[in-house]
Amino acid sequence: MFKIMSGLTLGTALMLSATAGHAALSLSDTRVIINGKSSSSVEVLNNESVRYGMQAWVEGSNGQDPGKALVVTPNFQAIDGKQKIVLRLLSFSEPGQQEQLYYLNVQEIPPKPADNGRSQLSMAVRTKIKVLVRPAALGAQRKNAEEKIEVSRGGQGLVFKNPTPYYFAVTKITAGGKTYSKTPLGTFAPMSTVDMRNISGAGSSVSITYLNDYGGANTAELKVK
């Protein structure tokens, strides 16, 4: 986040930061999926009436530069007020056995504030969304793959296992009459196991809510083994 601050107290700066969720630049999608060595695109809209700058880059799941495995173009662009541009994401990854997770970052660059002799603060919001590169051979089996999640009882709760080659975005778990959100299953990696010790009192099944490829919410009932 870029900041230009002059003559502001820390308390004022923190208060304004809390309202910075009103981004000038917004994206047309909440996630991008690329099938194999191909490309996909996402639109960037300038919601303001003045020109904003835009910087875009991609990173791996642990923040590293993916190099030529995934490229976004353009990297820098000026966007006029109420106009939009198209970002293109190109995958050069070799076919693998499971999905690969990346992130697209879009940083807005606000226009220079007019010098009116007053203290000013300029906030620049960065938007970050998931980019999944899916081997072409895995596309046909992806629909409702979340129903294959395995649930078993652990020593102090429930254990969730993802036996598939896909990333899942589970937004909510309902078990034993209680609902749990913001769990580690929000980015449930392929072939991984998550021990949810805080979930207790589950019956013979649990219900999950997850996001599909298009960002819509689906539900699935999973048996507890």
What's a concise summary of this model?
This protein is mainly β and 225 residues long. It is 4% helix and 46% strand. It has one helix at residues 10-18; strands at 3-5, 25-27, 31-35, 39-46, 52-60, 70-73, 76-79, 84-91, 100-109, 121-123, 126-134, 150-153, 158-162, 170-175, 178-181, 192-196, 205-211, 217-223.
What descriptive keywords fit this protein?
225 residues; mainly beta; 4-stranded antiparallel sheet; 5-stranded mixed sheet; 18 strands; 1 helix
Which class do the helix and strand fractions yield? mainly beta
Q: What integer is the average pLDDT?
A: 89
Biggest sheet features: 5 strands, mixed
Helix count, per DSSP? 1
- Ends: how far apart? 46 Å
